[in-house]
TrEMBL record:
It is found in: Cell inner membrane. This is TonB domain protein. It holds the Pfam family TonB_C. It is a single-pass membrane protein.
Amino acid sequence: MNATWVGLSLAILITVSFSARAKQEVTLNSQFKTAYFSYQGAVKNNDADSQFKYATEAYQLGSKFYGTANINTANLALILARLHLDKNQKEQATSLLLNTLNAFKVEYGDSAIDLAEIYILLGLSLNYDQRKKSINYHLKALSIAEEHAAEHAAEHPFINAQIQLEAGIALLRLGSSKSNAILTAQEFFKDKLSSNDKRVIESNFYAGKYYLTRRKYSKSVDYFESNLPVFKALEGATHPLELNTHAFLINALEKSGKSDEATNHCIAIGSMTPWDDSQEPIPLFRVEPIYPVDYARRGKSGYVIIGFTISDFGTVLDTKVLESIGGKQFERTALAALNNWRYAPKFEDGKPVEKYATVQLDFKIRK
């Protein structure tokens, strides 16, 4: 074949190849944009199922269009990882987050503030049997926030405090002493923001939980109660943290020996939550029955079913053993414990009323 013709043929093939590739990229880009805009629409409409569907499509198409190591793909992976965590699909989230972390390090550096959220999400993506690794991820996020605050004090100070709060909350669940980062965030938000700002409310709440876990009940009560005026001022729907605030206040006050003060919060919860007669009421505060030492030595097990009245104050009245197996000592310790329990009273026509209930307390030797 003539060399001139060979060259011409190759030129035509290459031109056709480039043309096909360009057309393919245009199509892929169009598909990606459609998926991503659909995801944004689902976020706007608060449609969780559609968010997950279109975020998955956007990530898959973005990976092909941008490449797996591209920062745009990493941001898409970060979106999808959050949604996997919402579905408690932790392994899928972990895989996406690790890839995202590597891409962010290349793009922004090992200590960039942008990495802090990824470390927090990585910590949340691990099960409790990986507690130590999870704690280390959260501590890494705190370290980044601390370094960022030291070097860039005037830049994004609220981001630093938000990282401290989110990492501190996770560390509190993991039982780490480093959860005192919550207190640092709370002081900052309280100093810079109004009392009804959601960051102040959230940090007050978790500061209360922090001190409750450390049995510093007076401090715990102070932080929980600091949110009550904000809740009281709300019109219409209650605040998402209001119910839990009253519940934790009941625990803190009961453990402080202030049962009378806890009553107001039992009544508050009762007024907020409808009573379901088909379900056994759940105690807001309970004392575990003491296992009789003599029975424990002999390996005795049993149970006690007790009928009782939940008063209009949420206290336990008129306890009576309905059925039991194992011996009288089980009955005595079960009754003694139940008399200290607190419930939310039932409300009828806007007023708290008494309600009969039953409960079974089981005594089993753990092997």
